[in-house]
Amino acid sequence: MKIKKLHIKNFRHINEQTIVFGKRLTVISGQNGTGKSSVLGWVAQLCDFKAKNKRLNDEYFKEDYSNVFMFCPINDYKNSYEVKFVYNDNDSLIEEEKVITTRLQKETKKSKLRYRTDFDGRGKALDFPIIYLGLKRLIPFATERNVRVKTTNIPDKYVNSFSNLSKEILLLIDDKINPEPVRSVNKNTLAMKTDSYSHLGNSAGQDNVGQIASSLLSYEKLKAELGNDYNGGILLIDEIDASLYAGSQIKLIDKLYRYAVNLNLQIIFTTHSLEVIGHLENKLGEDTMINHLVIRDSLVNNVVNPTYDYIANKIKNQIQKSDQIMKKSFICEDKVAQYWTNNLLNGSDLKKMVKVEKGPFADGTIVSMSQTKHSLFKDVGFILDGDVKKKFEKKKKPAKTVFLPETSRPETVMYQFLKSLSDNDSFWDDNANFTKQTCFSDYQGNNKGTHKRWFEDEQNKKFFGNTYSKLFNRWKKDNKDKALKFQAELRSII
Q: How far is the C-alpha of 163 from the C-alpha of 161, rounded, in Å?
């Protein structure tokens, strides 16, 4: 079975809203008082598993609703509520509905006064396994009274799985963790026991992870016991991130998704954690859904799959900040390379992303800088002249490095390009007698010194444009593909 939607109408401060569930993970987020835990309460009341299979903590796959959903004698007993679930039974394409209503049952000789729930009039709950983990799981055993260790026999396969899963989520390496069956007034769970501490040394975070791990492995046990009759289950977790630091939160979410797939589970949890929401932002879809509850005009509204920024601003109660693009610095060999790089970026989005720094550097220095792992260059990229490419023909190019187009120094590239142009090309200015003849007459050599002097010739520079823009633009006109390739390589680094 898979729950698809929950329609809530006129329940407390929820006027009429729909919660949408993912096939695997469902996040319920929002500020305090928006009814996040109430959503879990309604889901918990939906199921009443009849089989007598037991979890690893020796309890059944059902919940005492009085521990899950508290109705207030003052505010709730005078009202009757109605919610409607939409679900698919056994993964069929046919959608079914289950309506839950509430009513006050007056005291009689056979029963006490109580506020109860009915299904489809006076029908029954769904026969489906469910586990609910509430906030009582976060009370450390060391603060409780009447704590006792049980003698429950746990098969070795689950002992090892409990240890490995707990260590992976808590990011532990050395300790061997054993499950210790413990019962208190508030909890009946598997605590963590090592050579150094028992359940009394468990932190709230360890209690949290221990109960989640125990629940996942309980479903693994149920699947093995039922065989072909196993159809999945539901795991509800209130405040999943409580007492866990960011790294464990993210690891926990990844583990939950894996178990949800392998055990055909729907895992529904509440959270305020921006780490969790940010981790799931790019995973939203049919399998994973986020429902963010906000208050507008004193009523709760549900926003389905909003952006991370939307949720972050709501949770932090802040106004959206204007987008600020942090430019990434790239170092060039010299001023010529800086001019050409900036020209290659003209007209592209990269202009706002890249800050081009220039040399001059002694020959080979920038190449050595690009290969170093020194912390000074952690956030710096490198743009090397094309003639350096041959040094990396037989070895890997340094990370965060891109080469200027062609296989020569920029001055040589432009020298050879202009010399190949027709005398009638529009680049030349016959009226001013700026022609191939006057441009190259004093520079007929074919070495980099000659090309550099040609490039810096004061007479030529008058016609090459400010920062050599006219010269570079003419080259770019005939070499658009090479300019785009350079941009793509730069963008991939950013």
A: 5
DSSP states along 112-175: --EEEEEETTTB--B---EEEE-GGGGS-GGG-SS-EE------HHHHHHHHHHHHHHHT--SP
Torsion of CA 155, 158, 162, 165, to 10 degrees: 160
Show the CA angle centred on residue 405, arms to residues 404 and 407, nearest 5°: 95
Residue 127 has pLDDT above 90, yes or no: yes
Distance CA 419, CA 346 (A): 25
Cα atoms in the Cβ-side hemisphere of radius 13 Å centred on 84: 10
Token representation of residue 148: 């006792």
Q: Which helix (H) or strand (E) holds 428?
A: none
User: Is residue 322 exposed (0-12), middle (13-18) or buried (19+ Cβ within 10 Å)?
Assistant: exposed
Q: Check: CB of residue 44 under 8 Å from CB of residue 130.
A: yes
Degrees, nearest 5: CA angle 89-95-99: 90
- pLDDT over threshold 70, residue 45: yes
β-pairing verdict for 148-149 and 178-183: antiparallel
CATH value of 2-140+228-316 in 3.40.50, 2.60.40, 1.20.120, 3.40.30 = 3.40.50
Q: Please write the tens of the pLDDT for every residue from 54-105.
A: 999 999 999 876 677 778 888 888 889 999 999 998 767 789 999 999 889 8
H helix or E strand, kind and range, residue 343: helix 335-345
Q: Are the CB atoms for 384 and 366 separated by under 8 Å? A: yes
CA distances from 388 to 153, 206, 480 (A): 68, 55, 22
**DSSP character for 387?**
G
What residue spans in the chain does CATH classification 3.40.50 cover? 2-140+228-316
Residue type, 494: I
Q: Which residues contact 443 (CB under 8 A, 6 or more apart)?
A: 415, 450, 451, 453, 454, 457
234, 128 in Cβ contact below 8 A? Answer: yes
Q: How far are the Cα atoms of 48, 90, 226, 332 from residue 51, in angstroms, in the given order?
A: 9, 17, 10, 71
Question: Does pTM surpass 0.70?
Answer: no
Under the banding of pLDDT at 50, 70 and 90, the label for residue 357 is confident
